[in-house]
Amino acid sequence: MPTHANNDHRWLLWVLAVAMLSLQNMEVLTVGSLADNLANSLEITDAQVGAIFGAYALFYALMNIPAGLAFGRFKATHILALACALFAAGNLIFASAETTAMAYTGRMLTGVGGGLFFLGYVAISAASFSPALFATMFGVCQLVKFLLAMLVLALMPLFFQLGGDWRIYFYFVGLIFLPFIPILLWAGRSLPDPESPAGADRLRSIWNDLVEVCRDPQILRIVLIGFLASAGVMAFGGLWYLPFAQDTGFPSRDADNLDSLLMLCLGLGMTAAGWLSDRLQRRKVLLVIGLVMTALSMLGLILWVDPPLVVEAVLVTVMAVSGAAYFVLLYVMTKESVPARLATAASGVVNTAVYVGLALQQYLPGWILNVSGAPDRGAAHTPVLDYQIALMIYPPAVLISLLFAWTLRETGSNAERL
What we know:
There is one protein chain. By secondary structure, the protein is mainly alpha-helical. 77% of the residues lie in helices and 0% in strands.
């Protein structure tokens, strides 16, 4: 999509895109604090909790490749309005669920809508601002995303004290997206219609773009790193860290504060990574350092049972900042590794890998806990050793991704292409 710096509503559209992406991210990263409440309400197991939330990630992932191709050929605001409708409907269905089948349906529909928000943000930024501002504005967007998640996590204990539950939470998230639809359609009138071939030529161009992206060795390596490492940080931090911290001895208030710290550091890490990589022009070096630091801090968090609160906070900070750094760097390197016309499509392929990995890595610990015979959520505290075994899937996944990171081509010298 071309750049249109004189778009009358560019700031409004950018704020709307950031708001939608932030609310979607908030939902993904706060599910850990609702897991026990959901499990007790629907009387389901750890594996089912992981699978229900994993269904969102799976359908989110499936939407990213078609979305990446569609945003270059249809008006971004029309696609985002449809995304808001689907996301709202999915959350409302999930909040009304009385059976696991209804819960799965709601999360799947939410994932389909949610899968359009990230690439919608990329398309809106490209259509409204100079390409030179992409990295800076992307970092600001990420900071807003995680500050919102941190705020919501900090308020969760009060929410439960006031009688709130998972149903009220998801009803609220669903309803808040409905007003975005008419605003998007109104503000989007100032955006030009994208130039795209018609009929069979359009389908042929979509297929050719997808083939070109998937044949690029650099993109394939980034895909594997996203699948293994970025997904691991999101799954561990977003779903499993909070209940693990609570079951290993931290009082509920301390565990909530640590989870809020994790969200804050993810946002700060993403903002700092974009700025630092632009200054140093060494994306690959920073990526490798981030992977190593993430793996080591994850090992410390999993294996060191009941450490001093300060030590736990330091480990959380290191994991979040380093994990956030390579999360941003992967998308920046993706954009720099392909021609501009393929940037959205390539980002969609990478985002698909991240969320397929997230779906799998959210589910696996719960499955391992059930196989080991650990008690279901809410029934009793899960034995620490069982938790440690289940969560040890994460550090090796990050370390394996280092093998692919070493073989990446440095893109820092091509920063002017952003």
